[in-house]
Amino acid sequence: MEFQINFRKILDALVSKFYIVLITAAVFFIGGVLTTDANAPDTYSATTTIYSASYVSYRDSLEARNAILFYADVLRSRKVAERAASFIPQDITPEQIMSMVSSSSTGNSAVFSVSAVSRNPETAVSVVNAVAAAFVQEVVYVTAMEGVKVLDQATRAYLYSSGSRSAMVTRAEAALVGAGLSILIIACFAALDKRAAFPHEVTLSGEIELIGSIPEKGI
């Protein structure tokens, strides 16, 4: 018997078992509620920029830029974090600083961005400015290139992630996953159902004559 997918059968199965989809989505949503915290605190991000510039020659400026990119991983090193911690009035450890900061650059731009994320906006600003200053000092010390400088210090932090919104998104995603899984399972069972759905399935592809059918039974 040739295998064919009867989309009408699949649709009928989904309609008749839609309550299973709803129940599964509700179970997954409840799982999302139990594993997320709607009262999770918001997080804030602050950004400082570093740039490479030289008043001597373009080559010196380019070398300074390459130095920034080459030593980018040093930004999250313990040495830089320890130096940055000494600049910050808040009580914060180098380990915390290392987990808060990240960096990025765009194409051939001479500007290099440093960001810090924290639940406290003031801490985010203090940390990112301190890390940028410590990083510049380290690069200048290692390469002796004075063209590496802080361009713009962070003056305020912006909302990075809303705790309550993230929790709701996670719960909605869990419900969608549950609904999707149940739909997929129901569709697979309907597609693999070996009961006759096409006339040729009971006539051996036309080798025998179909005498009649029982109304409303799909035979």
Key terms:
219 residues; alpha+beta; Bacterial polysaccharide co-polymerase-like; 2 domains; 8 helices; 15% strand
Can you put this structure into words, describing what you see?
The protein is of the alpha+beta class. It folds into 2 domains: 7-36 and 164-202, no CATH class; 43-161, Bacterial polysaccharide co-polymerase-like (2-Layer Sandwich). Helix content is 52%, strand content 15%. The chain has 8 helices and 5 strands, in the order H-H-E-H-H-H-E-E-H-E-E-H-H. The protein has helices spanning 7-16, 18-35, 58-70, 78-87, 94-100, 121-143, 163-191, 199-202, and strands spanning 43-52, 101-105, 111-118, 148-152, 158-161. Strands 1, 2, 3, 4 and 5 form a 5-stranded antiparallel beta sheet that branches. Strand 2 and strand 3 (111-118) form a beta hairpin. Helix 4 (78-87) crosses helix 6 (121-143).
Q: Which shape, going by the Cα principal axes?
A: elongated
CATH architecture of the largest domain: 2-Layer Sandwich
Q: Mind telling me the CATH class of the largest domain?
A: Alpha Beta
Strand content: 5-15%
How many separate domains? 2
Sheet with most strands:
5 strands, antiparallel
| Rounded mean pLDDT score | 82
Total beta-strand segments: 5
The poorly predicted ranges are: none
Q: What is the CATH homologous superfamily assignment of the largest domain?
A: FepE-like
Helix amount, in percent? 40-55%
Task: Output the helix-strand order.
Answer: HHEHHHEEHEEHH
Whole-angstrom Rg? 31 Å
| CATH topology annotation of the largest domain | Bacterial polysaccharide co-polymerase-like
Report the span from N to C terminus.
15 Å
* Structural class by sheet pairing and helices: alpha+beta
Question: Total number of helical segments?
Answer: 8
